[in-house]
Amino acid sequence: MRNVIVTGGSRGLGLGIARALAHSGFQVIAIARHENDELLAAIEQVTRQAQGALHFQPFDLADVAGIAGLVKSLRGAFGTLFGLVNNAGLGTGGILANMPASEIERMTRLNVVSPLMLAFITRNP
Question: 3-123 belongs to which homologous superfamily?
């Protein structure tokens, strides 16, 4: 079974993508900060249908320094990584010019740096 990472995979569009991939026979690793009831129900449904697989891996993608370790542990647990869906993202609650620098930095790490790091590291073992 081919392994695919889906970031932001615990709800919304990310969970929808994770479900669709699992139903197509992929082994999906949904990465998000927290597990929730919707994700648990999806994992149970995919397990019952036995077409693919859906797993949860907790991780805060704003922790850019930890991404290499995350990918290494995923390879150890699941094997070769076939695909990556960079879906996680953080929006703003207001005008960027009025946001504290710490929020802008967190948003940039999560929306720009983390997807680039994941793409590079998953492609280059």
Answer: NAD(P)-binding Rossmann-like Domain (3.40.50.720)
- From the list 65, 66, 15, 70, the residue with the least C-alpha distance to 43 is 15
Measured CA to CA, the distance from residue 30 to residue 7 in angstroms comes to 6
Whether the model clears a pTM of 0.85, i.e. scores above it, the answer is yes
Which residues neighbour 109 within 8 Å (Cβ) at sequence distance 6 or greater?
61, 62, 64
Q: Give CA–CA dist 18/43, Å, rounded.
A: 10
**Structural domain boundaries in the chain:** 3-123
* Contact of 124 with 13, CB cutoff 8 Å: no
For 60-98, how does the pLDDT look when each residue is reduced to its tens digit (9 = 90+)? 999 999 999 999 999 999 999 999 999 999 887 778 888
